[in-house]
């Protein structure tokens, strides 16, 4: 998998959550999201308990609330979609603050907001306590198809390479006095995008040739064999098991 690879979502720490093997955390988050999605939307109290469970995990992981909330902004497009649902959905209507809203749309908006926010929060906690390289190793350990793991690995690394190249090109334009202020500058930006594509393609070809010359035959060597003890699995699965209890109560009450 190569050398360590840091990302902006990761928050360095030495908490018990950081120390858990990556594949246990991946399995725990996946199971937690499945449980949350399976919860009936009418059991509003259950989603409050799920949020409390995630808050406990964040405290154990020593992830500040501000750090978590700032990264939850990624779900803004889903929030916008949810806000529109009561206005465009059909069915029984109800008056709220002088506006006619769909009852089914209100429930749908709540369903999207509650489950989406909890899923994003769980994913952010996973990313903030696990390095990208460890996540890829965890996917390997969970027997995800090797080709998909390689594609994800290359995508992550080339994403950073392209971002750095874009930054250098922007600095080069600005050092020559260029500032994009209107439509007349779109031609320059289009040429820059074309040059970026060509450079990225050429770099990909060079990297592939370098890998083949070093013995690459379609699979990446496993450098670190990540294992987990029964106790570590128990710690990691405590979150989805607690959520499962809440879900069952939500269906029975």
Automatic annotation (TrEMBL):
It holds the Pfam family CbiQ. This is Cobalt ECF transporter T component CbiQ. It comes from Streptomyces shaanxiensis. Its main location: membrane. Keywords: Cell membrane, Membrane, Transmembrane, Transmembrane helix. Coiled coil: none annotated. It is a multi-pass membrane protein. InterPro entries: ABC/ECF_trnsptr_transmembrane (IPR003339), ECF_CbiQ (IPR012809), ECF_transporter_component (IPR051611). The chain crosses the membrane at residues 44-65, 72-89, 109-127, 233-251.
């Amino acid at each position: 998998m190569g050398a360590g690879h840091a990302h902006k979502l990761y928050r360095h720490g030495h908490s018990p959550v950081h120390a858990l093997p990556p594949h246990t955390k991946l399995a725990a988050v996946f199971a937690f999201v499945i449980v949350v999605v399976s919860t009936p939307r009418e059991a509003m109290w259950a989603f409050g308990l799920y949020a409390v469970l995630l808050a406990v995990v964040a405290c154990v992981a020593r992830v500040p609330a501000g750090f978590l909330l700032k990264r939850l902004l990624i779900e803004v497009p889903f929030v916008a979609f949810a806000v529109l649902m009561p206005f465009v959905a059909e069915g029984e209507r109800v008056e709220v603050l002088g506006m006619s809203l769909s009852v089914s749309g209100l429930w749908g908006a709540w369903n999207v907001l509650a489950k989406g926010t909890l899923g994003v929060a769980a994913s952010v906690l996973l990313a903030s306590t696990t390095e990208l390289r460890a996540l890829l190793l965890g996917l390997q350990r969970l027997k995800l198809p090797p080709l998909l793991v390689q594609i994800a690995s290359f995508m992550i690394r080339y994403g950073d390479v392209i971002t750095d190249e874009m930054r250098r090109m922007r600095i080069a334009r600005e050092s020559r006095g260029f500032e994009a202020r209107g439509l007349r500058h779109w031609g320059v930006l289009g040429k820059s995008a074309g040059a970026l594509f060509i450079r990225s393609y050429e770099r990909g070809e060079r990297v592939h040739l370098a890998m083949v010359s070093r013995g690459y035959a379609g699979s990446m060597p496993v450098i670190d064999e990540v294992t987990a003890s029964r106790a570590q699995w128990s710690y990691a699965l405590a979150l989805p098991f607690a959520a499962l209890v809440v879900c069952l109560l939500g269906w029975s009450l």
